[in-house]
Design goal:
Layout (H helix, E strand, L loop, with lengths): L1 E10 L7 H6 L7 E14 L3 E11 L7 E3 L1 H9 L3 H16 L7 E2 L20 E3 L1
Antiparallel strand pairs: 1-2, 2-3, 4-6, 5-6
Amino acid sequence: MHSDLLYNFNNHLMNANDFFGNATGIMRPYSVSQQWGADIGGPAIENRLFWYMDTESLTLPTSGVVAIPSPALQTYILGNIRLVQRSLYQTAFNLWNSALGSSRAVPVTNGKGPFQDSRGLMGCGELSSWV
């Protein structure tokens, strides 16, 4: 009979803050992920029939905040890509736009800092939105 057990744990104390968090004075986010698994196996009839069983799971944190392309970014992209790419992007935009909660998307407005534009929007200015 043979078996294995595994457990991997990772939390915010085991990870460094990212560049943008350090540059703006934001503390590293709280994050816990866990992975576990076990397997066992052996002969049911020696040298003829074997059995095996396995189980595993992975839990990852979610923030509840999802970044989606704003209508302005979608228009910009569709206006600046090749015709053969248009179908792929349009399909992706249709998925995002019909996703649950996408109608409640609001522009990123999280303060003033080196990575916000003059209106306090992060990154792409009015080309970015958050749900």
